[in-house]
Amino acid sequence: MEKNYFQREIETMPVSELKALQSEKLVKQVKNVYENVEFYRKKMDEAGVKPEDIKGIDDLYKLPFITKDDLRDEYPYGLLARPLSECVRIQSTSGTTGRRVVAFYTQHDVDLWEECCARAIVAAGGTKEDVVHVSYGYGLFTGGPGLNGGSHKLGSLTLPMSSGNTERQIQFMTDLKSTILCCTPSYAAYLAESINEKGVKDQIHLKAGIFGAEAWSEAMRHSIEESLGIKAYDIYGLTEISGPGVSFECEEQSGMHINEDHFVAEIINPETGEVLPEGSVGELVFTCIDKEAFPLMRYRTRDLCVLSRKPCSCGRTHIKMGRLMGRTDDMLIIRGVNVFPSQIETVLIKNGYPANYQIIVDRVNNSDTLDINVEITPEMLSDTTMGISEREKKLVSDLKAMLGIKTSVHIVEPKSIARSEGKAVRIIDKRKI
Ligand code: DLL
What we know:
Elements: H1 8-11, H2 15-36, H3 38-47, H4 68-73, E1 87-92, E2 102-106, H5 107-123, E3 131-134, H6 143-154, E4 157-159, H7 166-175, E5 180-183, H8 185-198, E6 208-212, H9 218-228, E7 231-238, E8 243-249, E9 256-258, E10 263-268, E11 282-288, E12 299-305, E13 307-308, E14 320-321, E15 326-327, E16 332-334, E17 337-339, H10 341-350, E18 357-364, E19 367-375, H11 378-382, H12 388-403, E20 408-412, E21 427-429
Parallel strand pairs: 3-4, 3-5, 5-6, 6-7, 18-21, 19-20
Antiparallel strand pairs: 1-2, 7-8, 8-9, 9-14, 10-11, 11-12, 12-15, 13-14, 16-17, 18-19
Helix pairs in contact: 2-3, 5-6, 8-9, 9-10, 10-12
5'-O-[hydroxy(phenylacetyl)phosphoryl]adenosine is lined by residues 93, 136, 142-143, 212-215, 234-239, 243-244, 301, 303, 324, 327.
């Protein structure tokens, strides 16, 4: 596999060597945060852990967890491990679920992050010959800057499109012959819809897409791959840990390799905090072992998934995380049953509907209700073999089989649900309003 920027030595390192490397970096990092960040010193003192108790990766469990609330309490500078004069960049979360989280980067941190994104582009088949079309938002959001930096590092021609202005996106895509598209899966679906409506699919040169930043189902992957004629790869990351590229899919398209030389992953029981064995579903926790400015230690992401170290045909040895099953705070509890939006999406797409839907949760007479609005396509509308109420009944029955609960489905007109250019907002939980 002769690939530019595939960091063979690091990415295919035997696991024993990888663990030794992680141990060495962790020991240094723990000492660093204990000496330089009052927050960590206090937390570790409270937990009765001294830096010398951490002798390697097997001692990681001894460190206390940190949460998004800690980050908010310490906003903006409380977790800085380097003087501000050494920092060259900030990025930030959108702050929709509370106070913003601001992450700081030294030049080393920016390089490390962009390198991770370059690895992701390479794993999706990218080389310096590619034209990388970046339609993630730029600015405080990490999507645009991360993939942009990765593409630069690789030496590919980088189109810093940012999100929005779909007409212009398609114009550039056809004129400049973009080969790799980077955006959220919901925006990819919207672009695919617009390209097909304009009848310009034969002028598109895309071969791959690197899609992430929001949950999406396997069914949605197939639908995007088919409508754009590309291979669609998942990419994961979060601002607190660096941004996109914390993990990414390779040609196997079955889970995302975590850049374990920089980020150590654990899966825990979200209720008890107990570390779970490989293969268990639980909350993902990350420790940044060689970041400088903002090295989070045992950070609870609230994202739920499974880790697996099964050998991968691509040769990479870094552990894989399965498709994200949702966030602990995205999970809907409907009449006592756990429901993930991605399960609903899977049923809709398997029945041939587009990924344009809304989930509305409410409480009526002390009982939770789950309503799903889904757009019909013009082709389905003109198909007279199945009426609207039959279609709704079929979806209710398939959803019951998937979720185990009764839902109300409403089929709505084509184009009546707003399209998203970034992360799609699909859930309206009126119980919280
Ligand atoms: O979404 C970083 C990113 C940009 C990742 C571009 C991938 C591509 P935040 O805005 O801080 O950062 O949001 C992080 O988004 O904790 C997950 O809940 C969710 N998320 C990110 N990637 C995926 C994915 C960016 N591939 C939060 N699948 C994370 C499902 C994802 N959810």
